[in-house]
Write a structure and sequence with these properties.
4 copies of one chain form a homotetramer.
Chain A (H helix, E strand, L loop, with lengths): L5 H6 L13 H6 L14 H10 L3 H17 L6 E7 L9 H9 L5 E4 L1 H11 L5 E2 L6 H7 L1 E4 L2 E4 H18 L4 E2 L1 H15 L8 H8 L3 E2 L7 H13 L4 E2 L1 H14 L2 E7 L2 H8 L1 H8 L9 E6 L13 H6 L11 E5 L2 H13 L15 H30 L1
Parallel strand pairs in A: 1-2, 1-9, 2-7, 6-8, 9-10, 10-11
Antiparallel strand pairs in A: 3-5, 4-5
Helix pairs in contact in A: 4-16, 5-10, 8-11, 9-10, 12-14, 12-17
């Protein structure tokens, strides 16, 4: 294991925020749970059978519907659906990265919008650190004393954070990045760096696999994660002019959606990534004046509820009034209320095992510039046409 | 009412995404509900009595605890707590902006982290558009046909979006902004513009009041709202070089927290704003090497649940293992599980009516540069000291 | 304080399930929280103002709607609505009994269906035992050692259970009850006994107040509480033939609903009491052949969700297909998603302060027999008429 | 299909609560979904692999823990655990009856506590009526007009209710039951009747299979379902003296738990059945004075939450303070937050495929009397011993 932080990790020097006297005894106990790995779905016929025959109603029925909408409609070759995947909630810490890797590798998702945290924690796997199965019922004051970090029931040493941070800062320095770019661009470069330095890591890293598969990965809240924290450090302490330009993200996603023959999404959780995906359609009609007609397919796994009124729980129906979802396709939308850690492996087993379980990859990461240029041309055409109409109107009114 | 979008609004030309034949009859019916206004809490003694005497257990008890922790501890003059407010969920559409205005005006919150959507919808009030009480059970296909937008049970014409967008784009052009700035800087300038063009609007606009009160307002997902969409348009179509620099946001918040005598927060909902606030402490110790010790107070109103494993539902205890919350203060943390639309007005009535219900405002919006400079100095001091130690270590090892 | 259990309580003999060596030191600490009392709503104008003006949307809006449907429609004298209140969740432990007392005293609810637990814990107040405000985050193994019982964040000594049980068994013996009766009958007799032995306890006991106000109280799961446990003991150990006859409960509730000019309900929580109320309408049409047309008003405060598919979360709309709710009245139905400990005091303040905040009491507890007789007559009339038709049909078919 | 209700079903006479003019056209459309059947788990190795290797954290991890606690500990032959299964939520309508049949047939659950609704809807399958997969988003006013009943997304004609009711009433008449019995006794007789009249129906009826396997089935709310409604009709209209005696249920369950070598439970949902199971331990120590020590194993699948404070969401830890759960076994308790329609089939596939996937059946339905007699003897022994001590104390005090 490489060590970007030899100071603390190798010499057992107390971490900056730890009480000096903390023993290491419990530390080992906390971390005695089985290592979490990236489980890869194989397309199990028995799981497909369960979903078709045993998941008949309520949320089990919804999972079945989601599987069939995805496998039988969204993946239908003649539909050529551009498929976005949004990720919120701690999925890579729970070992779900293997599902995402499989979907990208098979061309089943064309672009991804993720919270920064999922990408940051994906780096631990790429860098070969170990996260452990644990319990959500531990005493966090003891964990704190022992230098153990807890994500619900996932446990790992605080040094994993420090080492991962060190890698990110090292990459920033080496990359010589010094301007404003999109998150897709940044994550692609990060993925390439991982592939170079840790050959074979695309088997256990979403970022690395995305770079191989040409899948752009966006983050709606670029400052809101340890990756963003380290970029901010780089600006303040090293005088770098590298930054994320959120405008580029908005326009690239908008351009991807605009170019889609049909558009569909798989939304894990909700949160800011959900809205960042869905707002592409309103951006087109409301801001650029280009009516696109809304999403054609909409699949969400969530435990949030419509009655709490937040976007995470908002239904496909509500999205219709905003022009986010095509009003004619509500039958092709489905929300299953279930923890993604349960739903995603089941869903992926079904999808991977389906006749349409592999598509030619769109490799959109390399087409971003061309697509944005096309969006700009279309928006300029509309603007010119509107201006002409306005002149006509003015003339008529005289 | 000013109109930045005379084309569609005045001439009844069908909006780009509407069917031409849609009648206006139902439109009026949908919008016949009472206008939503910004309710201002006054410190009702009867509500204070209910909270102290009638809210004895379960989540009612938690609301009571939150009120007393805030009023009796966080606001205690000798604690001089730096208080952050984070906002997720559709609060300004529901008329909760009045509570936030009151808190800012009285110096009871020092900085705000909000989703972009809440700020965008706040603009409707500033621009004097009307949102209406409605129902969550309407047919969204009909709403779509009628050009009515629905946020759960809040209804308003789609033209409100178009007019508000037009104002934002007009402001961007007039402002001549052409570089990368923080969201606090941007929102402050937007607030000043509102105050100039719509005198008195600080009574019904969070953005305008924040500009008056010197409260910096941040957004963790700068591209993820109609404001971000319009900034992206400005870059693509007008060739502007104006953008949000997320690094500046990360460092400013970090610097504010670093400078706090004590730190505390009120978290409405959760989501990305919650993490953006909480990550300031890990940024300090994990990235800058400055141990700060975690938050001293933590109040959250949410309907998310810890067992779903997302950050929105994560408890103060879990935050301890990350160094986000001071392990010694768990008694001063509270999570009440209740819709913010219910909790916030009750909470504000209690707090406004308390003996500590007004503080001298910190006006942090004007101190951002100085605080970031102080953060940089401290981080450089730590870096130099670490380097010295490393040299010592190296020497010792020889 | 009377003691039905002098053995354990007065002599500090270890309770049967406690480790003998457990000290009493922590015991006092656990029970140091403020005593919980029955808060009585007074009709606060300031709270009414908040609900009308500040609760404008989302679940706050729903609370407002519930208040107005109840105060302005259900209580309208000309509607003479028969109003059922159902109670699930630990409301009497949380001090909500005062709200229920107030509603019964003012004639604002005509009958009640409650879980047995709420009635059992109401006895603690009647017997003058003290429950304390506490915390949900205690170590239950310590509580167990210390003989402290926890209901979420409400704490009291285990002796309170033993003493209350002793009172129930003493009452059963004294009452000489030796046959099968309805729960309404049983609870009425229990209430009369409380009034005789603890004069004035109707101010702090739902059971006692119900006996004064003539409000019948039903329990859908008669064996499922400590009251039911003690009745079962009485049968097994004392050879008593006293039992609850669930048939009588079904028929009495059915008869009350059948006699209602209009019918409406306030449902706290959901659970078995909710269904026990709602099934009265299907019992009428499906079993007795008497079409009644469904409920006219439906108010529910719950935190359960429709998407989990249980009855507690089922909407008024779903109840329409069962004939439980009149299909024409969906506008007069409302579900607010909020903890009852928050909603009920707010709701009661509004209702008590409304112009219709007092009605003549129906005192249905004394009319049960007459109403059941009327139900039987009507059902026999329908059966005779059906038989006549069947004979006609048979004849025609010949 | 037999018809107990020829009048309405065969002659298309409008049902009592239907508008006469309702057409049948939509009726067929609503009922065009696939028939729901009782899916039988087979012990799929692929599903077992997914659960062990892919379900690593969060609620997926909890499902894995539940599977392993059940298969590896509760079913261990030397533990001879007496296992109770409690059922709330609409599981038989969703086709989950096949899982329960499999568990009973294999001796993996020893007794069952269910809501009445699940047993009533189980009768539809026994009587060979068809329930259909549907949608939760239908217009319930249309369903009502068309005579279609909706349970969330499960649809069937209202005649199914009427026919099933007719069978229940016919059984009541034929059975000549005329006294008070326990629900286990009643459900056993009902199951025997089904087996006689519909040979082979134990493959698609929980009630019939339970009669074959000797598994007693209890209902905590005996009046609260269509079965209870029809028994009530039988008393009122036919003068029957048949009734459920809840005391017998309380004592039988108590006696079963008392006799258990070890005790454990699988709780689906929560609600009244959960408490009815858990209260057996407090009944023993609190009412009968027999310390049993609490449950040894506790598995729950639920979507309710601890923070709402109801019993359904109460944790194993909270149950410790009540003596419901053995304080030493918290590691052998687990709550997975997930819809039972998803969790139960997965859980059953795992358990059925495990090495301990079949046990000798305890056939407790035939041992109820003996167990209650044993309980009575033990309670009398304790009472006598207590009385002796009291006399001693009295003497000492003199």
């Amino acid at each position: 294991m490489l060590s970007y932080f030899p100071h603390a990790a190798q010499k057992e020097i107390p971490l900056p925020y730890r009480a000096p006297g903390a023993t290491q005894k419990t530390h080992d106990t906390f971390l005695s749970g089985k290592a979490i790995h990236y489980y890869r779905p194989k397309g199990s016929p028995e799981i497909r059978h369960l979903i078709d025959e045993g998941f008949q109603a309520f949320n089990a029925g919804r999972i079945g519907e989601a599987c069939r909408i995805f496998a039988d409609k969204m993946l239908l070759p003649e539909h050529d659906t551009t498929i976005g995947l949004t990720i919120a909630g701690a999925l890579t810490p729970a070992g779900l990265g293997g599902c995402i890797i499989e979907l990208m590798d098979r061309g089943l998702v064309d672009f991804v919008i993720s919270t920064g945290a999922n990408l940051y924690h994906d780096l631990h796997y790429a860098l070969n650190f170990t996260l452990h199965r644990g319990s959500p019922f531990l005493d966090d004051r003891e964990l704190y004393q022992e230098g153990v970090i807890r994500i619900y029931d996932v446990l790992f040493p605080a040094t994993v954070l420090l080492e991962t941070d060190a890698y990110v800062r090292d990459f920033l320095t080496r990359s010589r990045l010094n301007e404003a770019i999109s998150t897709a661009d940044f994550h692609y470069r990060l993925g390439r760096d991982l592939l170079e330095r840790f050959p074979g890591c695309e088997e256990h890293s979403v970022l690395a696999r995305a770079a191989v598969a040409g899948v752009p990965i966006y983050t709606s809240s670029p400052g809101d994660s340890s990756i963003g924290m380290n970029i901010a450090y780089h600006e303040l302490m090293n005088g770098s002019r590298f930054m994320i330009d959120p405008n580029k993200d908005v326009n690239e996603i908008c351009a991807i959606v605009q170019a889609g023959e049909k558009n569909g999404c798989v939304i894990l959780g909700g949160g800011s990534p959900k809205n960042f995906y869905l707002q592409a359609q309103p951006t087109l009609w409301e801001v650029y004046g280009i009516p696109k007609g809304g999403n054609d397919y909409f699949i969400q796994f969530t435990t949030d509820q419509v009655v709490w009124g937040g976007l995470s729980g908002a239904t496909p129906a509500e999205a219709v009034s905003w022009g986010k979802v095509n009003p004619g396709v509500l039958p092709d939308t489905v929300v299953a209320y279930v923890d993604s850690t349960i739903a995603l492996p089941l869903f992926c087993e079904y999808v991977v095992g389906s006749p349409n379980g592999r598509r030619t990859r769109k490799e959109l990461v390399h087409k971003r510039e061309a697509l944005v240029a096309a969006l700009k041309r279309e928006a300029e055409r509309v603007r010119a046409s509107d201006a002409a109409h306005a002149t006509d109107d003015a003339r008529t009114e005289v």
